[in-house]
Amino acid sequence: APAAAAAVASGVAPGRAAVFRLVQPVLDAIAGGDQTGALTLLSSLLDMQQVLEDPSSAFALAMLKPLLEMQLGETPATALRHVTRTLREFGLNCVDPSSEQAARELEPSLHALRLYVWSVLQWQVGDTPLITQRMLEIFLSLPAAKTLPPCWLDTARDVVQDKHKALAASQKATTSTASSSASKSAATSEANDLLARLQSHVEFGPIVVKVTALTKLCSMQGLDEVKVKFLQMFSKVQVARKQGRTSAELFNAIFRGNPGTGKTTVAR
Fold first, then answer.
1. Which pLDDT value is given to residue 247?
2. Predicted confidence (pLDDT) at residue 164 exceeds the cutoff of 70
């Protein structure tokens, strides 16, 4: 094992053909969507003396096995522990496989394979989504990634696209929050302005009581649009009274909302 680890870490394999000469059938099965067949083939290859003597193939198969097991029902956390153990056994970077130092540890195809497997398992575990999305962006930028199963590239693109969607949603939420805050501020300003104008024009009688009620309403936290609605309604009632047509106007209100949102308080 130490000799195999040293051989892999020193990048003994000269090229992809040599690296994947034993692993290629497994990658072909993955590309064809036959995960069960790929795992069966992989398990049989791991017992071959030829693989044991080929550290690059042994490393690639050891990395692929947890990924396939996860796709067939193993938990992502368990699969990630197996991959981490493999990286440590081979003396490789298991902290940041996307770093330049990590890239120099392996032949390009093996580095791309390691980066994909590590990133996808991290993504499935869900602890550091932004970091793993960034790793998959790096994976997609590697020329060697194009030699791996196309379904891996599709998965990586989907995860990266989720990142961009999340960022867009975050920006939209920020904009929406700012817009909502501006809208509430405008409503509060309008409510205060309406209340001041109404209070200065109240002339006599029972209207004063209603203005007191409106003052209480306007002192409540939030409900800015509700305040504006009732202040506007009160203004219309004032005009209707002066014009003697209150019986022709309808000023009913329906209060809708979840429990505890102030319906009864506002109605009173």
1. 63
2. no
Closest CA relative to residue 63, chosen from 75, 80, 49: 80
Give the pLDDT mean for 187-202. Answer: 58
Contact 62, 11 (CB under 8 A): no
HEC string for 83-150: HHHHHHHCCCCCCCCCCHHHHHHCCHHHHHHHHHHHHHHHHHHCCCHHHHHHHHHHHHHCHHHHHCCH
Mean pLDDT across 55-76: 88
Q: What is the pLDDT of residues 225-246, one digit of tens each?
A: 787 778 777 777 777 777 776 6
Q: Tokens 């990142």: give the residue.
A: 163
Q: Report CA torsion sign: 183, 186, 187, 188.
A: positive
Nearest to 147 by CA among 15, 14, 8, 11: 15
H-only helix segments in the chain? 2-9, 16-19, 24-31, 35-46, 49-52, 55-71, 76-89, 100-105, 108-125, 129-141, 150-201, 207-218, 224-243, 263-267
CB 214 within 8 A of CB 198: yes
Could you read off the pLDDT of 99-133 as tens digits, one per residue?
777 778 888 888 899 999 988 888 888 766 777 88
Which is it for the CA torsion 52, 55, 58, 62, positive or negative?
positive
Task: Match 């990266």 to its residue by tokens.
Answer: 160
pLDDT value at position 147? Answer: 86
Amino acid at residue number 216: K
Nearest to 213 by CA among 191, 194, 230, 188: 230
